[in-house]
Amino acid sequence: MLISFVVTEVSAQQSLSIGSETPLTDHKVEDVNGRTINLSEIAQQNGLVVIFSCNTCPMVSRWEDRMKALANSARLNNIGLIVLNPNERIRERGESLEDMKRRSTKQTYNFVYALDKDHVIADAFGATKTPEVFVFDGSMKLVYKGSIDDNPNNPSGVTKRYVDDAVQALASGNQVEVSRSVPKGCPIKRNE
After folding, report:
1. Strand (E) positions, the chain?
2. Of 49, 64, 182, 188, which residue has the fewest beta carbons closer than 10 angstroms?
3. The dihedral of CA 107, 187, 28, 81: what is its sign?
4. Which residues fall within 8 angstroms of residue 15, CB to CB, at 6 or more apart?
5. pLDDT in tens, 28-49
6. Cβ atoms of residues 163 and 69 within 8 Å
7. pTM for this structure?
């Protein structure tokens, strides 16, 4: 009898529930500009967007321009935005802080891009993919989690702009209509 096992990468915890408070708001991370910052410092009056991302996932590449557009939208709407790289297991294969600096410069990132050392924040959020997004309101309660939008392959084919819709709702004082979607991307490369 042949028995086979399929192993998938799983986060250390379950994903945050809608309405949960932002965990680890004072946990320090280093960004590509050498600054040591935390989520509390990034959050603004109307909330915070946290995107788990990386340098090596093809799905991230497809969404990069939209991530830059989201950073502009968030900024205009008094919402902080940070992109965190949790891929600890492959730091020496394209995910080091130096690699992140090069990527940020080459792609002209207009957002804070920081290293989530030992995937501490990703674990606390229960993030499993890159990219995966968590949006918090001005009270730092989770109002959305999932994908950036509904079409990673074709920006002009997007019909649901989940994160931008959440940003616009928060800025106008309205409820976020879609609170979750399935994140599409590459598994976070955690230490074993």
Report:
1. 29-31, 36-37, 48-52, 80-85, 112-115, 129-130, 132-136, 142-146, 186-187
2. 182
3. positive
4. 125, 126, 127, 128, 145
5. 999 999 999 999 999 999 999 9
6. no
7. 0.92
